[in-house]
């Protein structure tokens, strides 16, 4: 592929003074090369189930893994709109790397917004992020289920025990944010910040998943893992109320990865069918129209949420429509390409498996529809 030579950067007031100024734009400018590098090795990592260390390093070096670090911490301070834009593009290259990037970006964004991490621990994470990729993963129970990890107070520290399955990036995480239920007379559910190299934490390399295979979603075993009091993010009383903005960041970010994967599937299918019978034009056009509409919904709502947090309440409906559209796009693309699309020498069947797996990262459709219906009935 022939590329246009990069033009020299002309200094402007936006890129001088504060190092964070212009950092988002510089990182976005590196996106095309990063996506190409991810796509070049995605099939290999998917086939072998190997972790994409080089891909994660590439994302980090481009400044994309810390894009949402707050400006008060010296970071670019990217909002949801820029985050969604980055993740959609990364999803075109390798959905696994995009998912790992999303989880880390979400933690930095939440710290910039509500500062849940104690200052000292977050400074440690930032120091590690300057040295190299510092991935952060979250171990949460599926909606409606109790946490798989129990926290016991012992002496002057919390001790965690349990087995949390399918943790994306488990073998390469720097930190884990573990949801656990306390063994108290009145149990509380909270989050515990756990260093990946903590004594008592082990990785069971049992993952052999259908999709997102490069994400290496292994099981995490916690056996008497000691956690300091400063690393326990526990509510003082009743559980904290849901945060619509935090939910919107999570849902729209992962929906963006899904749409990026679907866009890659559609682009490959169109290239494969180029020059074929004209009967493919209209079906491809329908897929392009639906996918473009879903992209506009996600990107548009992300920008609205940056401007007005009240818009976050629309995220569940938008991510549901986006997830449906992404899945439908890939499956209908397979119908158009026939058996060729299922050939493992081509990326389309990988995109299908990745979209199926990504949808499990989002709220279940039934739960979303029930909540939307209930809101209507309640007026």
TrEMBL record:
Domain (Acyl-CoA dehydrogenase/oxidase N-terminal): residue spans on this chain: 38-104
InterPro entries (UniProt xref): Acyl-CoA_Oxase/DH_mid-dom_sf (IPR046373), AcylCo_DH-like_C (IPR036250), AcylCo_DH/oxidase_C (IPR009075), AcylCoA_DH/ox_N (IPR013786), AcylCoA_DH/ox_N_sf (IPR037069), AcylCoA_DH/oxidase_NM_dom_sf (IPR009100)
Residue numbers spanned by region Disordered: 1-22
An annotated Gene Ontology molecular function: flavin adenine dinucleotide binding
Keywords associated with the record: FAD, Flavoprotein
Protein name, as recorded: Acyl-CoA dehydrogenase
Sequence similarity: Belongs to the acyl-CoA dehydrogenase family.
Residue span(s) of domain Acyl-CoA dehydrogenase/oxidase C-terminal: 252-359
Gene source species: Kitasatospora phosalacinea
Keyword Flavoprotein annotated: yes
SUPFAM superfamilies for this protein: Acyl-CoA dehydrogenase C-terminal domain-like, Acyl-CoA dehydrogenase NM domain-like
Compositional bias ranges of the Low complexity kind: 1-16
Cofactors that this protein relies on: FAD
């Amino acid at each position: 592929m022939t590329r246009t030579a990069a033009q020299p950067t002309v200094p402007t007031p936006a890129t001088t003074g504060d190092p964070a100024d212009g950092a988002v734009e510089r990182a976005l400018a590196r996106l095309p090369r990063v996506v190409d590098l991810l796509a070049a090795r995605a099939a290999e990592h998917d086939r072998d189930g190997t972790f994409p260390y080089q891909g994660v390093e590439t994302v980090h070096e481009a400044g994309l893994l810390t894009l949402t670090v707050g400006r008060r911490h010296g970071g670019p301070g990217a909002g949801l709109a820029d985050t969604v834009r980055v993740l959609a593009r990364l999803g075109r290259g390798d959905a696994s790397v995009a998912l790992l990037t999303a989880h880390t970006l979400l933690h930095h964004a939440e710290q910039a917004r509500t500062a849940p991490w104690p200052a000292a621990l977050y400074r440690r994470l930032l120091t590690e992020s300057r040295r190299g990729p510092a991935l952060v993963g979250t171990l949460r129970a599926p909606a409606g289920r109790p946490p798989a990890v129990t926290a016991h107070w012992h002496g002057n520290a919390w001790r965690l025990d349990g087995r949390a399955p399918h943790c994306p990036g488990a073998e390469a995480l720097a930190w884990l944010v573990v949801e656990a239920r306390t063994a108290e007379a009145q149990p509380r559910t909270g989050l515990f910040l756990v260093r990946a190299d903590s004594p008592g934490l082990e990785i069971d390399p049992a993952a052999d998943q259908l999709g997102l295979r490069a994400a290496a979603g292994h099981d995490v075993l916690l056996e008497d893992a000691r956690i300091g009091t400063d690393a326990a993010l526990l509510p003082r009383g009743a559980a904290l109320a849901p945060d619509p903005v935090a939910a919107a960041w999570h849902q729209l970010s992962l929906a963006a990865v899904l749409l990026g994967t679907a866009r890659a599937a559609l682009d490959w299918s169109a290239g494969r069918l180029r020059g074929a019978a004209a009967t493919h034009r209209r079906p491809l056009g329908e897929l392009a129209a639906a996918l473009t509409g879903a992209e506009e919904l996600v990107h548009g709502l992300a920008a609205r949420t940056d401007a007005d947090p009240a818009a976050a309440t629309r995220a569940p409906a938008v991510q549901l429509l986006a997830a449906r559209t992404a899945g439908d796009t890939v499956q209908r693309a397979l119908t158009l390409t026939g058996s060729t699309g299922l050939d493992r020498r081509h990326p389309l069947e990988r995109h299908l498996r990745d979209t199926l797996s990504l949808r499990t990262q989002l709220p279940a459709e039934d739960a979303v529809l029930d909540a939307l219906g209930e809101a209507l009935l309640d007026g």
